[in-house]
Specification:
By secondary structure, the protein is α+β, with helices and mostly antiparallel strands. Helix content is 58%, strand content 18%. It has 2 domains: 75 residues, no CATH class; 67 residues, Orthogonal Bundle (Arc Repressor Mutant, subunit A), CATH 1.10.10. The chain is globular.
């Protein structure tokens, strides 16, 4: 199966054994989503229905697509959890921006802030909630699509 977007070959062949398994699985999911879209694309929404549906998801989409949020979410997923300074230094963010983003993520139930006993002190550790993990897994095909498309489809 070749991964294509709008008839354009993106240079990824899922039959190649050298590709990571996760890329193959995500590519298959993307193909299935395209198939579902084609099967159900005859459903038309009224302008008001469309406005209502978009209004429901807009706040979450704005959060998830804001600068640094995908980086924070993936760092927490891959690490299993990190302290504030670990995140700050790993991602190269300012304290203020990181603090604001973490507060938003905690408020929205994607990240939990825990106190962890350390050597002689209590530390704060951030980790993904189960909902946060689901969101990261859901974002993965989106981000892979951007990666596979390269810079061609994403001009500044």
């Amino acid at each position: 199966m070749k991964l294509e977007t709008s008839g354009r070959d993106l240079g990824y062949d899922s039959n190649q054994s050298s590709q990571p398994e996760i890329v193959k699985v995500i590519s298959e999911c993307i193909e299935k989503l395209k198939e579902l879209h084609e099967n159900y694309s005859n459903k038309r929404f009224t302008p008001q229905e469309l406005k209502d549906k978009l209004s429901e998801i807009r706040p979450k989409m704005e959060l998830l697509t804001s600068k640094w949020v995908p980086d924070i979410l993936y760092a927490l997923l891959l690490s299993g959890g990190m302290g504030f300074n670990e995140l700050k230094h790993t991602l190269g963010m300012s304290s203020r921006v990181l603090s604001d983003k973490l507060q938003e993520l905690v408020k929205n139930g994607l990240v939990v802030k825990e106190e962890v006993d350390g050597p002689g002190t209590k530390r704060v550790k951030y980790r993904l909630t189960s909902v946060g993990k689901e969101v990261v897994f859901s974002l993965t095909p989106f981000l892979l699509g951007i990666y596979l498309a390269g810079n061609e489809g994403c001009k500044n």
